[in-house]
Fold:
Amino acid sequence: MSFPRSSFFVGLMLAAGMASAAGPDLCEGLPTHTDRVAVKPVARPPFMKRYRDPAFGSVVMRITDAAEGQVYKPAYSTVQAWNADESLMILYRSGDESGHMLFDGMTYEPIRMLDIVPADIEEVFWSHTDPDIFFYVSKQSRDYGEFRRYNVRENRSELVKDFDEYCGARGLPVAGGDVHMQSLDDDLFGFRCLNDDDRWVMLSYRLSTDEVFTAPLGEGTNYENWTAPMPAPSGERFWQQGDSLSVDLKTVEASMDMAKYHEHANLGLSSSGEDVLYQVTFNAAPDGCMEGDLWQGVGHLTEHTLSNGRCRPVVNADLGYPYTTSGTHVSAQAWKAPGWVVMSSIGYDQFEWFSNGRVAPLLFSEIYLVNTDPADRTICRLAQHRSFSKHAKAAQYKPYLGEPHATISPSGTRVLFGSDWYDSGRVDTFVIELSAFSRAQ
Structure:
């Protein structure tokens, strides 16, 4: 099921490059202006009924029907919710029977709860090469700490790798706390764990060769112990706390020009097919990011190229956008449409704009789509999510779960987001279907 990395990635990039050049404009029919608009009061939309977003005209549908105090949401903006061909989808559900639920990726009908307890809610990784497969590290007692492959058609999992040699019998390899996907050929994975000597270790794992590299993490090293090395899409390097690392975790290939490495971000492909980190940026880059950038890298979206450390502003004040909105996340999982990313912004401490009848600050409570191609940069506005998120008062769940965490599909033609819909006491998942979406794709 694994492929030779170089040949697979070259083939994928040739296909993706041709699709990007000749493919649809994902922003077609959607507004690209920077006008401030009001958030009109709208009742919780009906279940499984499409509606037009009143501000921007996109087609949206509430695809779950959460009970009071319950949550249905995409696991996180940085991980793929749909499988490789978008025929299936996974959402997280809270409540008496909490866990990950499998849905039909086209009709949005629930199929079944999945018999998994992953290391973290976010750490369920769909294969990019096989639509029936996802990967996870198990937290269940029967297979604790095992890295496993799950076949959804056969409804069973199998062992891929046991890391006891490096993590100890009770060590739990995790990809957090800044989780991203595996390489696009499903061959390179990254983890961290606390071993039997009470020391943190980071792990590089190559599935096709069963090769493991390790390096210390935490005290006495250049890296804090709370994040694992995350594979770049090409499988040729890792991202770790501001650095691009070699696969053997020994060499720093490049260091990024960024004030903080732990802002919300996502690894993905640039429009030209390079490994990049798309980051939400609140603080000026130490070296100014790019020559001529008056804002020194500050903005809703900044692109960092992993191979050489190059920094490029994408969505910032130069284009008429305000200082970075709080609670902004980015999803760069449209690997079939490289360079397209979706973003969600909340705007904490600004919720008076839900009820004062005035036009709200630009990007407040918005989902928006960005074509990062420097020759064709476009930002279109999709929908208003109306979620109070971490400031919800009626939440009988962890209010953090109300953050939208907008998540783009592999083709880039659909977007999922969660919303508590004006602090309703529940969180549902909504889908935005762009004009380029086709059920026959």
